[in-house]
Amino acid sequence: MAANPNINFRDLMILIADPSPYLCMLVHGILRGFGANKVIEVKHSFGVLETLIGQRVDILLCDAKLPPHGGLSLTRAIRRNTENENRTMPILIMTSDTREAAIKTARDVGANMVVAKPMSPASLYDRLAWVAFNPRQFVDSETYFGPDRRFKIEGYPGGVGRRKGDKVVEVAEEVGPALAQDDIDSLFSAARTGQN
Amino acid sequence: MSENSNPPGSDREARTFFVETRFQRLARRPGGLSRAQALENAQAQIEETKPDFESWLDGELRQLTDLVATGVQAGAADPAWAEGIVSHCGQLRDIGTTMGYTLLSFIAGNLCEILEDANTDAKSNIETIMCHLDALLLARQAQYRGLRPEQLPELTGGLRRVAEFIRLAPDDV
To answer: pTM for this one?
Structure first.
């Protein structure tokens, strides 16, 4: 197993986009704990677009339902905008809607990864590490621009693995279509043979 | 940035290319905290915000209680009113677990699920909302704070059954 890689967060320009000021503050605090020193918070998609026009952003953490356009539409728009130098930046979608269809939609609009809310520092860190240490090709086609959706997870960096502990809400007889973080990751991990 | 030709048999319209983003380049620089240290520091940051969280939580529950009261007075749940409920509950769901209120997150999430799936003008939704509000106020109390949903199976199972019932028969409730 490879040595546990550290993420160097210093000087990374991180944009958090979420309508909840408290959640923004919380994620900001978590990132500060990771060592980040350049974090911007916005509450709506106009704020994201203004920020992207004005400066280079290294990674976007975006709520799936970010008003008014929705984080998924915003992601598609960013990926489709050939004029914007940020169009290939990593985008992590933060969502509480973990139904399979919602996760697949996030993947299909060009998100790099989905992290389930409520999130823990570990779940956020591991997905950021995955994006940092597992670069993926980009695909540019008539219907899609974004990270190659046909990739394979061979374990998170540094032997972190796919952690059972990521499951946030555990109810004994949980039924229904909601997916745990492991299942969400799996949807981003269809092997090159073309699953999903 | 380097481009690759498509493999035989793949979508011929698609172009694939490799990008090393600035995020990847900077994140992989030597230095940075170990994962364990980063998580420890992040948890410390969360702990620092907990006193503020208690005030925020009480404010959210107060606003939610007031909002529910207006719906009860009106006797019906219009979509905008229900959206307000979902907005407050969504925040409680998204933040509660991170701050140690797992049960609160579960209850708020269950109510969001009901309101997002069911007809929002059904009068019985008010009763559903009121029973969830009671559960939220209970989960806020100190003795329930550290409990997980599976530790209160009667409560969480009952709320789950309400959600399931409404999902199966949204037009009849």
So the answer is: 0.82
